[in-house]
Specification:
Elements (H helix, E strand, L loop, with lengths): L11 E6 L3 H14 L4 E6 L2 H10 L4 E5 L8 H11 L5 E5 L4 H9 L4 E4 L5 H59 L4 H30 L3 E3 L1 E4 H11 L1 H6 L3 E4 L4 E4 L1 H17 L7 E8 L3 E7 L31 H11 L4 E6 L3 E9 L7 E3 L1
Parallel strand pairs: 1-2, 1-3, 3-4, 4-5, 8-10
Antiparallel strand pairs: 6-14, 7-9, 10-11, 11-13, 12-13
Helix pairs in contact: 1-5, 5-6, 6-10, 7-9, 9-10
This protein binds adenosine-5'-diphosphate.
Length: 375
């Protein structure tokens, strides 16, 4: 007996948020004419009514008129996202032919915009079709990214224990080999095993840190930058002494930051300035300048420098340049970038090979509107 699979696809559910009854009727008529996929349209006449409906039912698409009694323009979309979260498939209707409002809506997460009075039935149907498809892709992409992140996290986590054991036994073996008359090759090979196991352990540890960053939420609070720099310098004391480095810093301002994460950034930049030093003793200076609402922090060294062609690439995960430190894994600057971006800032580098580099990043002086962000 053969069985056939029937597709009981339910109609697409659209919520139209529109205060004018005439416009709502026009919208329903136009869409009915050109959009042949089974669908239903519910109308909410205000944001409040839309929130009530969305609290009770699921919709595949929300078409939001930006001109409502409670609010006008882009504030309507902001109010909508604030109440319902950004995780909503929205197409906006803009009142004027001012494209900048529509473009702003796209930047804030809307799937598309239509200008009222300037679209016909076909255009409307097309916007609905494309909007739904874009939303489907956005969800698939989010899921793929989440899966990848949790895979990286799991892989790194599960590799940690066996690698630790390999490192430990390699260390014990090395002690044994060193303690007796062994031929040169034997000593060398055991040394390699130990070095590679240590390197793999560092890689896994950094990978774990990198993947964890994706789940940590950052809470910004006023922080004395000078204190964080002092702590970063103290924690790097042994490598500073070993390399005869000198770290200086000007009186530094107060910034909005998560102190632990900011410390991580400074530790990374200072330790890189030492690792990638030139022929002379490292001289590192932490300075800053005021950019109005932001502070630009600069960590300058007199090290090897970086060729222009690589300046962007070094912030990508696992990007290591020829001659990079053998202990590094190429995640330090990628983590710095994630942290700085979660602080609403930017990080970049300028450099002159043979002379030195300056790593600059920006931080806010006062709290942003949404002071919680995921790294
Ligand atoms: P890692 O140090 O583990 O290799 P990073 O992400 O910290 O990884 O740095 C990426 C690459 O950028 C390094 O491998 C190095 O080539 C280059 N780099 C970073 N900081 C400096 C610096 N201060 N001076 C010169 N090169 C640097």
């Amino acid at each position: 007996m053969s069985s056939s699979v029937r597709n009981f696809q339910r109609p697409i559910r659209i919520l139209l948020v529109e205060d004018s009854r005439d416009h709502a009727i026009l919208f329903q008529g136009s869409l009915g004419k050109a959009y042949k996929t089974p669908h239903t349209i519910d109308v909410a006449e205000s944001l409040g009514e839309a929130f009530d409906r969305l609290g009770l039912e699921r919709y595949d698409l929300i078409v939001l008129d930006l001109g409502l009694p409670e609010s006008q323009g882009i504030e309507t979309l902001d109010a909508f996202y604030e109440a319902m979260g950004r995780d909503q498939p929205v197409i906006v209707l803009t009142a004027t032919d001012d494209e900048s409002v529509g473009e702003e809506a796209l930047r804030r997460g809307a799937l598309d915009f239509l200008t009222k009075g300037f679209f016909g039935a076909d255009q409307l149907a097309r916007a609905v079709r494309y909007g739904l498809e874009r939303w489907r892709q956005r969800i698939a992409l989010d899921k793929a990214q989440r899966d990848l992140k949790s895979f990286a996290h799991m892989a790194a986590h599960d590799l940690k224990a066996p690698l630790k054991s390999i490192s430990m036994y390699a260390g014990l073996l090395q002690d044994k080999v060193n303690g007796r008359q062994s031929d040169q090759e034997e000593v060398e090979f055991v040394g390699y095993v130990s070095d590679f196991a240590n390197q793999a352990e560092r890689l896994v540890e950094s990978l774990l840190q990198f993947s964890l960053m994706g789940e940590k939420s950052v809470t910004l609070a006023p922080v004395e930058l000078g204190e964080v720099v002092s702590q970063a310098v103290a924690s790097a004391r042994s490598s500073i002494e070993e390399s005869k480095a000198e770290v200086t810093f000007a009186p530094l301002p107060r910034v909005q930051a998560d102190p632990d994460l900011l410390m991580h950034v400074l530790q990374n930049l200072i330790s890189n300035a030492i690792k990638y030093r030139g022929d002379t003793d490292p001289r590192i200076h932490v300075g800053w300048r005021d950019l109005g609402g932001e502070v630009e922090v600069a960590v300058t060294d007199n090290g090897q420098g970086i060729k222009d062609a690589y300046l962007e690439r070094i912030f990508e995960p696992f990007s290591r340049l020829a001659g990079s430190d053998s202990e590094g894994v190429g995640l330090g600057l990628a983590i710095c970038r994630r942290v700085v971006e979660a602080h609403h800032g930017q990080i970049w580098a300028v450099s002159e090979p043979g002379v030195g580099s300056t790593f600059r990043f920006t931080l806010l002086k006062s709290p942003p509107d949404d002071s919680q962000k995921v790294v």
